[in-house]
Amino acid sequence: MLSSYYEQDGITIYHGDTLELLPRLPVGDLYLLDLPYGIDLKEHGRTGHDWKVKGDESQEFGHAVLSEIWDSPIIAFASPMLPWAGKWRQFLVWDKGPTVGGGGDMATCWKLSWELVQVRNTGKLNGKRDEAVMRHHVTPRDYALHPCQKPVGLLSYLICKATQPGELVMDLTCGSGSVLEAAKVSGRRAIGVEAEMKYCEIAANRLRQGVLPFAG
């Protein structure tokens, strides 16, 4: 029997290797993923921490995960410089705002203040037809728990557009638990998998704080 690290209110965290655990997990209604981009990201000092993203030396891990769930509904964050390969139905843009961003030589390159979001196999979207540029501005403080932390508001938006209440959202590298919190806020169930114990605890502590369910 698969043992969970955390389980409460329809949200479950498993500590372990994603590729080993994936065959034992239920099939999700949406895979909302922030896999290591393969850009060898290093962040130094901007939030008072020195970060190194595990597994980000290549896209090998990310493509291995995607190949296992390729026929499922997927929304995956990606680097504009190194998108995920294969046939995707749509590409969205997350505009992060003017106070964050990097990439390239500061003297000769525009600041990269947006991220790519790749979409495949999703069905009819809920609500009105929105533009493909999502403006959720962040500051360096929004990365206090993880170097790749995503805003809960943005994640909740994606979840609510692509799933129905009560459906199952999967995050196969859940980090500090932003997708799990967004699913809980949005009235969805969620499963997260995380290889690093410290992030399992951070995510569990966030969920224990008792976020309110989505009211809209």
Architecture overview:
This protein has 216 residues and is of the alpha/beta class. It has one domain (6-208): Vaccinia Virus protein VP39 (Rossmann fold, 3-Layer(aba) Sandwich), CATH 3.40.50. The protein contains five helices and eleven strands. The model is unreliable at 42-51 and 212-216 (pLDDT under 50).
Based on the model shown, name its key terms:
216 residues; alpha/beta; Rossmann fold; nine-stranded mixed sheet; two-stranded antiparallel sheet; 5 helices; globular; disordered C terminus
Short description:
With 216 residues, this protein is α/β, with parallel strands linked by helices.
Q: Treating each run of at least 4 consecutive H or I residues as one helix, how many helices?
A: 5
Q: What is the CA-atom radius of gyration, in angstroms?
A: 16 Å
| CATH first level | Alpha Beta
- Shape, per Cα inertia axes: globular
* CATH architecture grouping: 3-Layer(aba) Sandwich
Our count of domains comes out at 1
